[in-house]
Amino acid sequence: MDNWQFGITDLADITVVAVVVYFFLRLIRGTRAVQMLIGVAIVVVVYQLAREFGLFTVEWMFSHFFSAFIVILVVLFQQEIRRALMRVAVNPLAAGNTPGETMIAMLVESTYALVHRGWGGLIVIERDTGLRHLFESGVELDAPIQPDMIQALFCPDAPMHDGAIIVHGNRIVAARVLLPLAQANAVPGDFGTRHRAAVGLSEETDALVIVVSEETGAVHLVEEGQLGNNLTSRALHDRLSSRLSSLQSHAHKDHEQDESEAGID
Ligand SMILES: Nc1ncnc2c1ncn2[C@@H]1O[C@H](COP(=O)(O)OP(=O)(O)OP(=O)(O)O)[C@@H](O)[C@H]1O
């Protein structure tokens, strides 16, 4: 009986460890953590060999390395840790501050006004993650979300056209804001820094970012680090409605397929 219980406990033990290791490996696959793990494995092997063959100085050096291991991990992964914490630390005051239906229509109209003028644009829509810390790099504003205002901000001759604007609720609260850049390989090669900035912020926060390409006039709604497709105005409207509005657009499902590679209407 004892043996039987022991067997089941062992099995549960091994299963839990296997599942944890599996999910951990899936989590870090393709990231810098893999190289880190290989590095750590080499250090462990060298340490064991040093102990085996009595290489005291090497052993002493590596034992100190292990005692500082947590600090080393924090330094190496500060970017990943910061991203994870930013996603956890949501702003309780932000709830209910998402733009309503009228504002969504204004955002879409403004976006396509930029497209028709051949201007680039970067519009960040704040959700639960607070973005105040980004304002320091730009200029604080309190302006309405209107096509005229957004065109005035992104007009290539305007002093504030560089960088992003931030939308909080029904207002534009900052302009000329610098966003964190994603790694170069996070976006396809034909996209430049404007798109990398959109992807970078959406990797770190739950913000939605509308990017208008100056070069091609393509419009992307970037979310969770994904650039997605070039959107038609209707597809952009439906996407924004489904992400932001409590009044879900009835047409959302019908029009999701309108997101076309070609599509600016
Ligand atoms: N870190 C950043 N944060 C916010 N805006 C940025 C950032 N880096 C670049 N930009 C904006 O992107 C503009 C440059 O875009 P660039 O041509 O390099 O990118 P792109 O992705 O190819 O966009 P486009 O298709 O519009 O040319 C800058 O003038 C600036 O307004």
Automatic annotation (TrEMBL):
What EC number(s) has UniProt assigned to this enzyme?
2.7.7.85
Keyword Phosphoprotein on entry: no
Q: By its UniProt entry, which Pfam families does this protein fall under?
A: CdaA_N (PF19293), DAC (PF02457)
Q: Which enzyme type, at the first EC level?
A: transferase
Reply yes or no: does the keyword Translocase apply.
no
What are the GO BP annotations of this UniProt entry?
Answer: cAMP biosynthetic process
Q: For the region Disordered, what residue ranges are annotated?
A: 242-265
Q: Molecular function terms in GO for this entry?
A: adenylate cyclase activity; ATP binding; diadenylate cyclase activity
Alphabetical list of PROSITE patterns matching this protein: DAC
* Complex formation: Probably a homodimer.
- HAMAP family (UniProt xref): DacA (MF_01499)
What name does UniProt use for this protein?
Diadenylate cyclase
Source species: Mariprofundus erugo
Q: Which gene encodes it?
A: dacA
